[in-house]
Design the sequence.
């Protein structure tokens, strides 16, 4: 479904277009029409499905920008999620002048938050403890709050926030809308729904029976900044004649096409903003082999009728299981063999595991090909071609030239062959991406568990550690996984592809004035 069909406020529509969203994700298509009517709703959805916009858009439509009082509250389990969701809602509100959205969470100086709140904020997104703190101080006033969202409600309960959530719900004015989002629906969630929601509509994306084509599927855990480099390596390594690369937004399609062209690939993009004539030109190029790589959004790819796509690349993990199946179904057609590759960043691994579960398919993890792998494969290809020429061509004249040339030289014909091979293979100077393999540190899949020699007795808080890691390494805080703090030390999980960067960055870092030591955890 398109966002136009969801009858959005034109200012939100403009923001959504600028964000590059091409169609509403399934959870958005179902939730938005219910939520804009002001009804209570239970949405079963997890991160990565577009749930923030699913509640953010209806909230914004119902907020009055001329009223500077607090009108909507979003409760969420962690500070990272609060910051991340506030960013997303702000982007959606970009063209709605006069709307202020503020994240409030523990760990940040309360006086700073109070100052920001005084400026008049209509939407706050915060962790339950800190929200209650503000309510008690009367720095948050609930009289005009017309909507509340419980985001990742199951996570909030796991973290022990049930009482806090109930306190906030009880203090709201009688007339208000409640939207509850949760990946799972355990009993306590249903109890909250029964006690605090009025005739809620339940929304979840019904999973169809999905038949996954029998093709080889792989995934690679990547650093987000290295995605296009990894894609290039895979393209070089497998050298597919025709490939389809999927991105989640129109903007990504345009950016990636530019990047690939800059690297010398014959790539073109296809998305909904293009005129029919442009689309025809791109498709013709793809069909007659002028373009080897087509970069597309899910919507744009629907109209494509090419059979012999050798490889499908999910540059972004798809937002829905069904998209995954549609995407990879573009290869391996008509009895041909095909391959599908998915690039995964940090916790997107959970979305991928979900896809595997629902689609009952196996997606195998593979290491990112090293430069040596690429060199081997490129050389193999050139040598194979050369072997064919030896069979089919008369090389007498060229052999004479070589003999004459090598006559008085100090190098062997083998060295000469290797040098010619190098010329033929072209540029091999791609940057190194290989990272240390940390082995099993006892972390979740895709993560490395790090040991930090600072803990509770040094009066540090989890927020200090998170802030130091994000601040020093430049990695987004939301990518940090579990943090377990003990008296004199702390364990932190970070995505595998960032682990070396974090360790290096923390070498010079201080937390609460103390020089710290960070190393991979020992796991027995
Ligand atoms: P969420 O599930 O809210 O954490 O969203 C995951 C990511 O998907 C965010 O980066 C959003 O900006 C993005 N997103 C949300 N809705 C859409 C959409 N309709 N099309 C493409 N990307 C989207």
Sequence:
């Amino acid at each position: 479904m398109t966002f136009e069909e969801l009858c959005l406020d034109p200012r939100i529509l403009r923001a959504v277009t600028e964000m590059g969203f091409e169609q509403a994700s399934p959870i958005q298509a179902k939730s938005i029409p219910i939520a804009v009517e002001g009804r209570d709703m239970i949405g079963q959805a997890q991160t990565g499905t577009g749930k923030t916009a699913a509640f953010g858009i209806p909230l914004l439509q119902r907020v009055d920008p001329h009223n500077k009082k607090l009108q909507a509250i979003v409760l969420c389990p962690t500070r990272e999620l609060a910051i991340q969701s506030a960013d997303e809602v702000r982007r959606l509100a970009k063209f709605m002048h006069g709307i202020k959205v503020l994240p409030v969470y523990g760990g940040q100086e309360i006086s700073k938050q109070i100052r920001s709140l005084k400026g008049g904020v209509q939407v706050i997104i915060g962790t339950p403890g800190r929200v209650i703190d503000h309510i008690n101080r009367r720095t948050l006033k609930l009289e005009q709050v017309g909507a509340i969202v419980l985001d990742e409600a199951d996570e909030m309960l796991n973290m022990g926030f049930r009482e806090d959530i109930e306190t906030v719900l009880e203090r709201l004015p009688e007339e208000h809308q409640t939207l509850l989002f949760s990946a799972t629906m355990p009993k306590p969630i249903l109890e909250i729904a029964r006690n605090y929601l009025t005739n809620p509509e339940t929304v979840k994306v019904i999973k169809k029976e999905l038949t996954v084509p029998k093709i080889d599927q792989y995934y690679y855990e990547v650093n987000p900044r290295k995605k296009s480099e990894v894609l290039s390596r895979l393209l070089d390594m497998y050298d597919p004649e025709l490939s389809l690369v999927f991105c989640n937004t129109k903007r990504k399609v345009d950016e990636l096409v530019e990047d690939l062209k800059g690297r010398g690939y014959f790539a073109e993009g296809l998305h909904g903003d293009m005129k029919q004539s442009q689309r025809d030109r791109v498709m013709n190029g793809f069909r007659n082999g002028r373009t080897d790589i087509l970069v597309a959004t899910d919507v744009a790819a629907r109209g494509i009728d090419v059979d012999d796509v050798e490889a499908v690349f999910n540059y972004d993990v798809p937002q829905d299981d069904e998209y995954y199946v549609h995407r990879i179904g573009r290869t391996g057609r008509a009895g041909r063999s095909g391959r599908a590759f998915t690039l995964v960043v940090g916790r997107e691994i959970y979305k991928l595991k979900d896809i595997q579960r629902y689609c009952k398919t196996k997606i195998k993890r593979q290491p990112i090909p090293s430069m040596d792998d690429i060199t081997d494969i490129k050389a193999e290809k050139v040598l194979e071609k050369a072997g064919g020429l030896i069979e089919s061509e008369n090389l007498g004249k060229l052999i004479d030239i070589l003999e004459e040339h090598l006559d008085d030289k100090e190098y062997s014909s083998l060295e000469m062959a290797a040098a010619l091979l190098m010329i033929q293979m072209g540029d091999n100077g791609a940057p190194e991406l290989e990272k240390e393999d940390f082995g099993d540190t006892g972390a979740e899949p895709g993560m490395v568990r790090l040991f930090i020699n600072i803990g509770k007795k040094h009066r540090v808080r989890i927020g200090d550690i998170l802030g130091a890691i994000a601040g020093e390494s430049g990695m987004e805080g939301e990518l940090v996984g579990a943090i377990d703090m003990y008296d004199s030390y702390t364990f932190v999980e970070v995505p595998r592809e960032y682990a070396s960067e974090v360790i290096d960055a923390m070498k010079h870092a201080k937390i609460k004035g103390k020089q710290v030591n960070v190393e991979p955890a020992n796991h027995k």
In short: The CA atoms of residues 128 and 164 lie 6 Å apart. The longest helix spans residues 371-392. The first strand starts at residue 41 and ends at 44. The chain has a mean pLDDT of 88.
